[in-house]
Amino acid sequence: MPRDGSADQGFERTLRESCIAKLAGWVVSQPREMNLGMGLVTASGVLHEIDVVAQHELTVGILELKNRAEWPPEKNDVIVFFAKILDYLCLSPVLLRSYLLPVFVSSYAFEQSGLAACLGLGIHPVAPQLRPLPILIDNANRMLTEKDNGLAVPSGDALALDDFCARIRNMASLLAGADANARFDYFSDLTIAVRAFGGVAVAELAVDLRAMNAECSRLIQVFRAAKGG
User: Fold this and answer.
1) pLDDT tens digits, one per residue of 18-64
2) Which residue segment(s) compose the domain that 165 sits in?
3) Nearest residue to 47 (alpha-carbon basis) of 56, 38, 55
4) First to last CA, the chain
5) CATH number of domain containing 25
6) Residue 50 and residue 87: Cα distance in Å, rounded?
7) Is residue 186 situated within a structural domain?
8) Rounded to an integer, what distance in angstroms lies between the CA atom of residue 35 and that of residue 108?
9) What is the pLDDT of residues 172-205, one digit of tens each?
10) Of 58, 137, 159, 208, which sits with the fewest C-beta atoms within 10 Å of its C-beta?
11) Hey, which bits of 16-58 come out as E strands?
């Protein structure tokens, strides 16, 4: 049965077109990609549609997209996405020769269990007012560089930036083992290793991630004002 032009499909099409236009040098998958953009099959024998796969040299971005106002992404959505990736990995360990970047993009805010599951499974969540941890780290480094280069910001905000950076470093340390590239190891074309990771209070970290995003947005405005922008 042909698929209709639903809101989800429109969101996927728009994001794919944006990736093609803005990611110079990246190879972006076609609609309804069933082989992870690399002609791969699964251990289960059942292929899974991956919304967008973007490849650049040794980096493979694997994107799940949701556009549901009435039903925000929750833990089952995230776990199914993780299972799709694992199904390909279990038959094609060669994937681990690349840097895997699983990303879950939602046009609406995550349900709390969905956000926590993303953190625990090493999936980068993206939503309105929600930057993933690598983007927060990049934003923090840019602001630190501007401050170190002499940009004058109020002393209270300079201290707030230091606290913000410390919180980011702590979260990055706690979640380092969740990253797919740390969790899985390539041994041979027939063998992978999986490191156990867990015991982290991801529900609390999900709350912290939202708070750090709000603080990041506030600090960005402070720095823009300091530059006269």
Assistant:
1) 999 999 999 999 998 999 989 999 999 999 999 999 999 999 999 99
2) 7-226
3) 38
4) 52
5) 3.40.1350.10
6) 12
7) yes
8) 27
9) 999 999 999 999 999 999 999 999 999 999 999 9
10) 58
11) 27-28, 52-56
Number of Cβ within a 10 Å radius of residue 133: 18
Distance of CA 32 to the CA centre of its chain: 20
The answer as to whether 65 is a domain residue is yes
Are 127 and 114 a contacting pair, CB within 8 Å? no
**What Cα–Cα distance (Å) separates residue 150 from each residue in 10, 63, 64, 147, 219?**
45, 39, 41, 5, 16
Question: What is the tally of structural domains in the chain?
Answer: 1
SS (H, E, C) 47-82: CCCECEEEEECCEEEEEEEECCCCCCCCHHHHHHHH
Longest dimension (CA), the chain: 62
Amino acid occupying residue 101? L
Is residue 1 a part of any domain in this protein? no
